Structures are given as structure tokens and as C-alpha cells.
Fold this protein.
Amino acid sequence: MLMKRKRLIMIILIMALLCLSACSLTDSGDDNAVKIASVTTSESKIMANMLKLMIEHDTDEKVEMINNLGSSVVLHQAMINGDANISSTRYTGTDLTGALKEEPIKDPKKAMDIVQKAFQERYNQTFFDSYGFANTYAFMVTREMAEKHNLKKVSDLKAIAKDLQAGVDNSWINRVGDGYKDFVETYGFDFKDVYPMQIGLVYDAVEAGKMDVILGYTTDGRIASYDLVVLEDDRQFFPPYDASTLAVNELLEAKPEVKVAIEKLIGKISTEQMQKLNYEADNNLVEPAIVAEKFLEEHNYFEAEEGEEKNE
Amino acid sequence: MSDLNTFEQFFYYFSENGSYVFEQFITHFLISIYGVLLAAIVGIPLGILISKYSKLAGFIITIANIIQTIPALALLAILMLGMGLGKSTVIMTVFLYSLLPIIKNTYTGINNINKDLIDSGKGMGMTRLQVLYMIELPLSLSVIIAGIRIALVVAIGITAIGAFIGAGGLGDIIIRGTNATDGTAIILAGAIPTAFMAIITDVLLSFIERKLDPVKRHKKATTPTVQSLTE
């Protein structure tokens, strides 16, 4: 009797475990399962979620997310290794000097053309047209600092640069072509100390007064929330960083409907719009997944606009 | 948002992102469960095996011990080189970490059974398989569950680190908190459910463990008079 009860309990336990294991973690074994990779920035996560929702809305695909990758170099590696087949945000300037190891190009259109061509030829990947926003690097200071020293352009920093501590993105400092070394050459001055930091921390550092000047991204929501002054790049030093989706051709050929869904996002998000979305995520504690969902629902997943285009 | 204190922000966060946190909670839980389940499927038979062939015991337990000494982040990184990014790598890491407690507890549980019971079983004409199913496994079940319990609590912690290689789960929310402007509330929103999950599974499994302990249950069922005396 006792033995039977024990066996019953064991059977129940095993059944419970088996039931749990039936709830699959989206591992369908499909070679072309959609896997979207993103880096740690809110922007990348918002766009990754937007792509996910667009694809899930328009097709029957189940999308897997790979979050928190370290940098665009890691993204590139993940795409090549087959860990992911869509990158949520890739920037022309970053990939030109990073993944493609080309010389930096200052003209946004030319840069886009070369990047698109090179990814097709070398990696068999499609670099889509831009979402419509550019996330360029820019030097920023607090409003207080800008007024005190009358700072408007990067060149204005020259007189006081030797007393300044600068916080910069850790992937920028050693970049060839548009990194720190080239910056010093172009502008003819360097800072007292340059601290490579994780990009999310630089805005806090300048706000807290730990850094005097920082190198941040133009679409960051914290520019508005901390009232930072973006210094004009008066010598056209930073190349354009137009943001786009990058996807593996194999996936796009196997599932053309995925391509259609991705293309609906092209040109739909301006830099100001992105700043607002980032602000929602960074300052208003809304998860990127929710920000993306709200935005797409507001715009009805871009269905109406597609209809208009068809009528034309 | 800055006019709210951390506590208020925390609740505001949940009201805005409740569904997302729940989704990540489930993902996190499933990754942990999968790893431990796989380890149980491999570890329990292995534990039984080494309790029968004691020469193997030292060797296998040493290997499991060595795996346990590797820091979680290092093991994740090593496995990532071979298996790539994503959930399966984290499940593999959890699996490797769960092996030691499960193997060791199965081994100890079976070895600690009173040899007289096994002898009497054999004396009754039981086969080796019958001895295993009718005496050894039922008597050591609570110890084995205790091993699974340790493994699962450790697994929930490891899964949180797994967010670094893109597996998702509650660790994702914690990492986002470290990147956000004023991320204290977000960090808490990731950390508190993680701790909560560990505590709940621990309590639940310790309850099952107690239920399955034949000695404790037996006392309750057959000797109520003794209990009332001690009270």
C-alpha cells in the first residue's frame, strides 16, 4: 500500500516534469528560424522588438531574440556564425570601418551605397535602407558648462581641453579612421584624460560632474532628460551613422514574407522620433518591448500606409 | 520620473511592464528547469551506477567536482565558443552545474540505506532490479529530491547570468537596469522576481522532500502517541 503511494507520487512528479518540458522554448530545429540579435542599447532593443512584432504580425514565423551582445563586432560575428540571422540596428559608419575595414566616408549616401554593396558581395547579407534616423557620435556637455565657457562647436573645446576629463564609448577609442587618434589629428587638441566607458554610463557621468565632456549618441533620450548641449561637429569629423536592419540573404530567400515585413519599417522613424522612443525606455522605465509595441499599435503596424502605396 | 522614489518607480515599472516581466519570468524558469531536468535524467542513473560500482565513484564525483569549481561566467564563455549564443548554451551550463548535487545525493542516498533492508529484500527472493525499485529508490527518493532542490536554486542564479549571452530571462531586465539613466528600480524589478523564484522553488521542493522522506512520514502515520507525549 505504502509502496504504491510512493510509486504514484513518483509518477506524478515525472508527469509534471514531462509536461513542463513540452512547453518548448521555441527551438523548432528550423535552420532558417528567425533569430534577431541586438546590442545592449535601448535603441537596439526597441528596434529588435519592432522587427520581432512586425514579423510576427505579418507572418506566421516565431521569432527568437538574442539580446545584450557587446558591440557591433559581436553582432557581426554572431551573424557569420549563424547564431543570429537578423541584426536589429547596424550603422553605416560603424560597419564601414568595423566589419568591412574600409576607409571612413563622410557622405551619408555614398557610405550607404558602399556598405550595402560590400555586405551583399562579401557576406551574402542584405543591408536594408535606413529606418530614417542616424545615431551619430557627438560631444556633449552640461548646459551649465556650455554657458560658462560659451561652447557651441567642438572647436570651442580647444582652449580648455587640457583641463578636461572626457568619457567616451569604449568601442570608439581604438577605432581606426574615426577613433580618438584621428580626432586628435583633425581637431588638433586632446583631453587631459580620456576614460573608455560603457556607453550607458557616460550620460550619468557628465550629469554627476565626474566627466566634463562626453561622447554620446545623438538619438539618446537622456540628452533631453539631462538637458545636455550637443556640440556641433564643425570639422565634419564623424562619419554618418544611418541605422538599418541587416539580414542574412539565405533567410530572406527562404522566407520572402519576412523581407516584406522588414521593409515596412524603412524610413518610418526620424531621429527625433527615436529620441522620444529612447526617452520612454531610458527615462520613463518602459521596457523596449512595450515601447515598440505601443509605437507599432499607434501606427497600426504600418498597414494603412502600405495600402496607400499599393493604390499609387 | 525622477520625482518618484525608488519604491514608487518600482511599482510604476510593474504597472507599465507587468506582462513583459511575466514573460521573462517564464523564460527564466523554463531555462532553469530544462537544465536541471536534463541533469536529473543523466545524473540519477549515474548516481545509481556509481553506488553499485564503487570503483567508479571517486572518478565520476571528482569530474563533477571539477566542473563545479569553474566560475559560471567562465563556463558560459567556454561553452559559447562551441555552441554559440542563446538559450541552449545556458541550458547546457545549468546542466553541467546541476550534475554534482544530483549525482552526489543519489549516490549518498542509496549508500546510506540500512544494509539489513537490502539483505532482507534479497532474502525474500527479489531480483537486483526489484531491490532497486522497491527498496533503494523509494528510501533514497527524498535525498535525491534534496539534490534536485539544490541544483534548481543554483540554476536560477546561473540563468540570470545567461542574459549576457543573449538567452533572455530576468537577467535581461537587470542588465537593462544597469544601462538605464536611473536604473535602480529596473534592477530591482529583475532581481526581486529572481530571488522570489528561487525561494518559491526551494520551499516547494523542500515540501516534496519532506513528503517523500519515509522515516518522517512513517513516524507521523504510525506513532501518534509518541508525538503527543513529546508535545
